[in-house]
Write a structure and sequence with these properties.
It is a single chain. The protein has twelve helices and eleven strands. The chain is of the alpha+beta class and 291 residues long. It has two domains: 175 residues, Sandwich (Jelly Rolls), CATH 2.60.120; 108 residues, Homeodomain-like (Arc Repressor Mutant, subunit A, Orthogonal Bundle). A hairpin with a 2-residue loop joins strand 5 and strand 6. It starts with a helix and ends with a helix.
Length: 291
């Protein structure tokens, strides 16, 4: 329990099909972030995000829900949402980390068919010395290149390299990782997060979500506190505030239009909610971002 309580929850922007594809994923080299933290990434987890670590060269110790695994490049690791993970990299490690929103992952898997169903637990891929993961290395390198560029057909190129990367992972030998004893609680948490993704604009209370999941409100509270260190109501409010902040940053919709899109009966109700959650009015939030 303490392991999860100490793991912060990170989330990136990007959720809807109408958004630019590049905003639905994040791609960076291992070194770009890890060397800022002395090559040590503390245990954390993500909501609504799937992550791929491709280790091209070097050695990494991966912590997954308290268990440690040693990776030697070339290797890859897939981490579904909600799994606590941390890394200890050798200073000479090279490779990439790709983070994908749940919406983009779902859309990609649906396009590719049943064989492309995302894993429900972390998966490790170890590549032979003959293979060296050349195809994955090329796909990650090109994906990172296109992600950082602003050239014609950027989204199409990102889609192409991401599709190649994901299909190669689905067809590569894989090994599962030992699941923790609280796996049932994790599944309840993932189901709640998925339901919240679908219904956050409908302003349901905890008493609606819990029965949908076959849980009592008390049980759901225990689950979210264990895996996110938040109550269900805090997660509901945070998800709605996140949707609001995305629209304030990435669209030119008026405050009234955003309030209506998010299911608020009056713009004033939306403004009060956002100010209470974010500590600033929607208008000032948008002005601060623009500045």
């Amino acid at each position: 329990m303490n392991y999860f309580q100490g793991a912060p929850l990170f989330q990136l922007y990007g959720e809807q099909d109408s958004w630019p594809l590049a905003e639905m994923l994040h791609c960076e080299t291992i070194a770009s972030r890890s060397r800022l933290h002395d090559w040590h990434i503390r245990p954390h987890h993500h909501a609504g995000l799937y992550q791929i670590l491709y280790l091209h060269k070097g050695r990494a110790i991966v912590g997954l829900d308290g268990a440690q695994h040693v990776l030697q490049g070339p290797a890859a690791l897939e981490i579904p949402q909600a799994f606590v993970h941390g890394f200890e990299f050798d200073a000479r490690c090279t490779g990439h980390v790709i983070t994908i929103t749940h919406a983009l992952l779902t859309r990609l898997a649906e396009q590719l068919g049943p064989a492309a169903t995302p894993p429900s637990e972390p998966v490790i891929h170890r590549f032979s010395q003959q293979d060296h993961g050349r195809c994955l290395h090329e796909a990650c390198t090109q994906l990172h290149l296109q992600y950082g560029a602003h050239q014609p057909f950027r989204d199409a190129l990102i889609q192409a390299w991401l599709t190649l990367l994901y299909t190669r992972l689905r067809s590569s030998p894989a090994e599962g990782t030992r699941q923790r004893q609280t796996q049932r609680g994790l599944q309840h948490y993932i189901r709640f997060v998925n339901l919240l993704e679908q219904a956050h604009c409908q302003h349901h209370m905890v008493a609606w979500y819990a029965p949908q999941l076959g849980l009592s409100t008390t049980h759901l509270t225990l689950v979210t506190r264990a895996h996110a260190d938040k109550t269900p109501l805090q997660m509901i409010h945070a998800r709605l505030a996140l949707a609001a902040s995305r629209r304030l940053v990435y669209t030119t919709l008026s405050i009234s239009e955003i309030a209506d899109a998010l299911g608020f009966s009056e713009p004033a109700h939306f403004t009060r909610f956002f100010r209470k959650t974010a500590g600033v009015s929607p208008r000032n939030f948008r002005l601060n971002i623009v500045q």
